[in-house]
């Protein structure tokens, strides 16, 4: 027997999930009959595994398995024909077997053959005296072996049929997709999922009508869908979801057109309970290149998208799924980035200048991430992803320590420029955030007035009570606080007044919009006025031109940040930039 068919045979055996399962009466009954018909003390259903004969059912045998080597049952499985050994001790081959060692003298076995023709093992009887087997006995043994096979297939099918609709279930759908992969790799096919209703709608039905009635409705829906299918098997893949694969001659576009028309027609003509709530997800896939489980997963996503569509039909967009996977990957990989202190992450610094003099008064530390495979990832992409996870604590911590280490280094070189650090909303939820910042300052031997923390307007609002508490403690420790992206949130002046804020950074969208005209300029002018009323220093973000800088200065805005002055710089370049631009802090002569 060749290796390929042996591995296919083993595969078939394993797929039946029979090996190492407990004994069951339905098999034992047949084994007992075999033993009675032959009038012999020993009988077994013996399955031929890779290197053992494993007994699914046995009468008069103590062992659960014996080695496959020289076991007559293995010969039955391999030849797929009955085998009779009238006297084991007199048989040149089997005289040396384990079976002979147990005192067995007679063996008769009939093959267990699957519908696909794989020999799984044997139904066998064993005697302790040599004897012959009659024609009648052997034909009974063959019949009983066929009954064993029927039982095996029945049990297997049981886990593959939905008890309510009697349709093949999710397992069968996945198995059949896997078969498709083997049979026609590379073929483009279209999978379809019909989702009968949203979970809350289903819950509503169960609450009002009871679950028995829901089963009835699902059965009706299954019939309705099946009636409309040609040449496709319908699978019942979840309580209220059905799936099928369109025949090979349909492409995705034709499939969507067909399904949209069928659904519209059903909505117009059918009285099924689910006709208005059903939606259809469509997923084109290539057999062999998309794993069956992924096809099903994307089907669910497409069906969900379909809920937002009037037609009720949505085709899976790989672009949306790619974006989803990228988010997931960034989230996963960021943890690793945090653990490599000098590897993937770095900060760049963007100068902030006094509009009156053009000199540098501060700088903002901005995080940069170079992913080892995906390259530079913009903070606008990864920060919001990390902010929604617990890793945001590590992110802020990393930037804080990196910034403080940089400040300490500049301090030694005689550069005294405060650094501003961005803090996320959920950092303010951490009960000991303020303490950890103060602790970090101490560890790096940096004075509190050398850092400023930027929180967005919405972050300060989000957990109002707790956020205010943390901000108060930070302020009390001598740390400057700034409201970032001012104007994009909805905080009231009354609320802002309660916050210990020193700086307001007007969001760059308002600054850039000033080019558009008088109204936009008036808006910025009033924001500057608000800042003054709150007795804050006002900073304009995103200044890209000399004109904007002059206008803002005339409005009374104190400071500015933007490409017009400088883009964010690598920390090494910043010291050089400062030397030529000058600072208003401790290096008054630097520009001379
Ligand atoms: P942000 O805190 O408002 O930072 C200002 C952003 O505007 C920076 O983008 C900066 O490069 C950009 N920018 C500055 N001047 C101009 C200009 O004249 N024109 C234009 N078009 N853009 C200008 P960046 O570095 O891409 O950061 C984007 C956002 O990511 C930041 O907005 C901040 O919300 C977040 N972020 C960056 N680093 C960190 C960090 O360390 N922690 C946290 N929590 N968030 C960070
Ligand atoms: Mg900022
Ligand atoms: Mg900002």
Protein traits:
single chain; 592 residues; alpha/beta; Beta-Lactamase; Alpha-Beta Plaits; TIM Barrel; eight-stranded mixed β-barrel; six-stranded antiparallel sheet; 21 helices; 22 strands; 21% strand; elongated; binds ligand C2E; binds magnesium ion
Topology, element by element:
Elements: H1 3-15, H2 25-38, E1 42-48, E2 52-59, E3 65-67, H3 72-79, E4 83-85, H4 98-101, E5 106-113, E6 119-127, H5 135-158, E7 168-169, H6 170-183, E8 188-195, H7 199-209, H8 211-227, E9 235-238, E10 241-245, H9 252-269, E11 279-286, H10 292-306, E12 313-315, H11 318-339, E13 345-354, E14 360-371, E15 375-377, H12 379-387, H13 392-413, E16 419-423, H14 433-444, E17 451-456, H15 457-462, H16 464-476, E18 480-486, H17 493-498, E19 503-506, H18 508-513, H19 518-533, E20 537-540, H20 546-555, E21 559-560, E22 569-570, H21 571-581
Parallel strand pairs: 7-9, 11-12, 14-16, 16-17, 17-18, 18-19, 19-20, 20-21
Antiparallel strand pairs: 1-2, 1-6, 2-3, 4-5, 5-6, 8-10, 8-11, 9-10, 13-14, 13-21, 13-22, 14-15
The chain binds ligand C2E and magnesium ion (MG) (2 copies).
